[in-house]
Design goal:
Elements lengths: L2 E6 L6 H9 L17 E6 L3 H10 L3 E3 L2 E6 L15 H8 L3 E7 L15 H32 L3 H18 L11 H8 L9 E6 L10 H13 L2 E5 L1 H8 L4 H10 L6 H13 L1 E7 L3 E8 L4 H8 L1 H5 L1 E7 L1 H7 L2 H6 L4 E3 L10 E6 L2
Parallel strand pairs: 1-4, 1-5, 3-9, 5-6, 6-7
Antiparallel strand pairs: 2-4, 8-9, 10-11, 10-12
Length: 366
Amino acid sequence: MGFSCGIVGLPNVGKSTLFNALTRSAAAQAANYAFTTIDPNIGRVAVPDPLLDTLARLAKSAKVVPTRIEFVDIAGLVRGASGGEGLGNKFLGHIREVDAILHLVRCFEGGDVTHVDDRVDPVADAETIETELLLADLESMERRTVQAEKKAAGGDAEARRTAPVMRAVLDGLAAGTPAAHVKLDDNGGRILAGLGLLTSKPMLYVCNVDEADAATGNVHTRRMAERAQAMGRGIVALSAAMEAELATLADEAERLEYLQAAGLAETGLAQVIRAGYDLLGLLTFFTAGPTEARAWTVRAGARAPEAAGCIHSDMERGFIRAEVIAYDDYVAAGSEAAAKAAGKMRSEGKDYVVADGDVLLIRFNV
C-alpha cells in the first residue's frame, strides 16, 4: 500500500513543473499556457528512507524495495469547472480517484509566467478551486440524497441508515461547508468515506515560491499558512523550479550542496511525502532478510493481520502471528539473529497494533 496524490490548481501555477521534478521525468509537458496537460500524467516515486537502507545493510539484503507514492498531474481547473468551463468535469473525475489532494498555489511574483487572472493572490486562487470542488459535490449530493430519501421512505434499510448522513452532508455543502468539516459521529464518518466526495479528501497546500523564498517563505506563504490553520490542513512551501533543477543532479553530494546553499535540509519531495503521511494517517513497517529489505505503508492503528495483508492477501487470511523487532532494537543488535538472542524479538497476535518502524516476520498458514 502506498498512496496517490492528485496535484491540482489553477492553470500556470507550476503543476507540471512540480510533477516533472517530483517524478524526475519529462512525462508532463510544462509550458506557459493553460491546459498543457490534457490527460492526467501519473508518476510513481520511490519514497526515500534511510531506515530502510540501514536495515538492508545490516540484513545483507540482495535487493532493496522502497514503498512508493503516486503523483497524478491533473490539468488546471478554472472558475466554472463544476459547470463544464475549461476542461470541466472530466478533471473533477480524475480528482475523485486519488487518496489526497496536493493543492498547488502560486506564491511567487515573477512577470514572465502568466497568471490566469493576471494577479498573484494564492488565497483567492485556493478559494476558486475549492469552490469548484464544493459545487461539484453539491450537485452530486442533491441528486443522490433525493434518491436515498425516496428509498428510505419506501422501507429500504440501507437507505434509512445512509439518508440522514447524506442530508447532513448536503445541508453542510449548501452552507459552504466542505464535506470533511461536517460534524458526524463515527458511523456517519464511515458513510461519508464511501460517498467519494471531493471535499472529503485530505488536502495539503503546496506553496510554489521563488528559490530565494524556499527556506523562509514570504508574505504569500504566511497568508496561506493562516488559511491552512483555519481549514485544518497541512502546508508545505517549495520552489518547483528549484526542485526541477535538483532533479537533474545525479550526484547525491551535489544535491546536498545545492540544498545547503539554499538554506534547506531536505528536498520538497521529502517534505511532501512526510506531510502526506501525516495527512493520511500512515506509517511504515519493514521486512528484512538476505533476499530483500522492503518498506510497506499501512494506516496508523492497523493491526498485524492488516499489515500482513499489505504483503500478500494469503498472509492476512492465514495469519498466525507476527514476530516483531522494533527498528531501534534491530539496529542496536546489528541483525535479526542478534536481536532475537537479546530477547528483543516479540511474538504478537492478531490484536497487535503495528508501530512505525516495526520490522515484521509474518507467520501464516493457508
